[in-house]
Write a structure and sequence with these properties.
The protein is an alpha/beta fold. The chain folds into two domains: 288 residues, Phosphoenolpyruvate-binding domains (TIM Barrel, Alpha-Beta Barrel), CATH 3.20.20; 56 residues, no CATH class. It is 41% helix and 15% strand. It has 13 helices and 14 strands. An eight-stranded parallel beta sheet has the order 11-6-5-4-3-2-1-12. The protein has a two-stranded antiparallel ribbon with strand order 7-10. Strands 8-9 form a two-stranded antiparallel ribbon. Helix 2 links the parallel strand 2 and strand 3. Helix 12 packs across helix 13. The chain binds glyoxylic acid and magnesium ion (MG). It comes from Nocardioides flavescens. Keywords: Lyase, Magnesium, Metal-binding. InterPro entries: Aldolase/citrate-lyase_domain, Citrate_lyase_beta/mcl1/mcl2, Pyrv/PenolPyrv_kinase-like_dom, Pyrv_kinase-like_dom_sf.
């Protein structure tokens, strides 16, 4: 790949004294990444009480924070992070875009002040590997200076046409790469899509059934069913493949219609089924939706365990309830069982539900 480091150097720290890069991105549950505005005192005050109720708390410094509040948001995040014990909950931040006047101060302030508490830095509007290389080197320099003993990971938002075109090289640009999120609002604008929403579907994006025929003649006046299609299917599918290929994690992004919990759940579930591990939450009620959707159901876990048990050494084929199971369906079931184990380790309610599954 043009511009990439040779294999022998890929895992070398990019600054003298910076922590060793990770060889494998830890599979930490991150079903909901809950966004808060650290410059909003009311929102910030709720953060300590949310620890333990959500997998990831993210202090947002970028879009949705007014230009006049950028410094207050950055300083607010430092204050909250220093005062809070996050326990099992991860702390992430979304920094300002690389072409903004704020991002350098974001990083040079946050890393020395709270670098030991920050798990992941989310970078918006990533266009190509060069953006990740810039962040990678800067983080290494700041980590070395701050004497940090573990690297801060990097998450890119896929929200430009060029970013989508370069998605594979972005995922493979650094061992810091933790994952990707879909940024449907910026992506729609950058692509010049004719939508005005933040995530979700659109009633105009549909297919229509063929007209009924009478004596071989199409009746174009007849009413016909239409089926809304998913505007984001193509992008999410590309993200999932790029992430899987590089051993990192794909996420849905924002769903802006907070009141439409049903459509929100549908979008999240499509992403889960396609391979995403989590999503953003813009309101506390979306946390519950994300936790439900991105945790395998007890029915799925029960079935997966049955297949694992029936497949013995994992080779060959068996019939279960009239359906053929083989090495490949076993591998799918193992994904489900493994995810259930990871989630049970941090979510006592889920653990109780999974433990209660009867072995058939
Ligand atoms: C998120 O940042 C988006 O643009 O959708
Ligand atoms: Mg955006």
């Amino acid at each position: 790949m043009t511009g990439s480091r040779p294999a022998k150097d890929f895992f070398r720290p990019l600054a003298v004294g910076a922590p060793e890069p990770v060889r494998e991105v830890p599979a930490r549950p991150s079903r909901a990444i809950h966004f808060f505005d650290p410059s909003n005192a009311k929102m910030a005050a709720k953060v300590p009480d949310m620890v333990g109720t959500v997998d990831v708390l993210l202090g947002n410094l970028e879009d949705a924070v007014k230009a006049d509040n950028k410094v207050a948001a950055r300083e607010g995040l430092v204050e909250i992070a220093q005062a809070t014990d996050f326990g099992p909950t991860q702390l992430w931040t979304r920094i300002n875009a690389l072409d903004s006047p704020w991002v350098l101060d974001d990083l040079t302030t946050l890393v020395p002040a709270i670098g030991d508490k920050l798990d992941v830095v989310m970078v918006p509007k990533v266009q190509g590997a060069e953006d990740i290389h810039y962040i990678d080197r800067l983080l290494a320099q700041l980590e070395a200076k701050a004497g940090l003993d573990r690297p801060i990971l990097v998450h890119a938002i896929l929200e430009t046409a060029r970013g989508v075109a370069n998605v594979e090289e972005i995922c493979g640009a650094s061992p810091r790469m933790q994952g990707l999120s879909l940024g449907p609002a910026d992506l729609a604008a950058d692509r010049r899509m004719k939508t005005t929403r933040v995530g979700g579907g659109h009633p105009g994006y549909l297919v229509r059934e063929d007209p009924p025929r009478v004596d071989g003649v199409a009746n174009l006046e007849a009413s016909r069913s239409t089926y809304q299609q998913d505007l984001w299917h193509y992008t999410i599918a590309r993200m999932v493949d790029a992430c899987a290929m590089h051993g990192i994690y794909p996420y849905y992004g924002p769903f802006g219609d907070i009141s439409d919990v049903v459509a929100c759940e549908d979008q999240f579930r499509n992403a889960f089924l396609l391979g995403c591990v989590g999503t953003w939450s813009l309101h506390p009620k979306q946390i519950a939706i994300a936790n439900r959707v991105f945790s395998p159901s007890t029915e799925d876990v029960a079935h997966a365990r049955r297949v694992v048990a029936a497949m013995g050494d994992g080779t060959g084929a068996v019939m279960l309830d009239g359906k053929m199971e083989d090495d490949a369906s076993l591998k799918q079931c193992l994904v489900m069982v493994e995810l259930a184990e990871q989630l049970a380790a941090i979510d006592p309610e889920l653990k109780a539900a999974y433990d209660a599954i009867e072995v058939a």
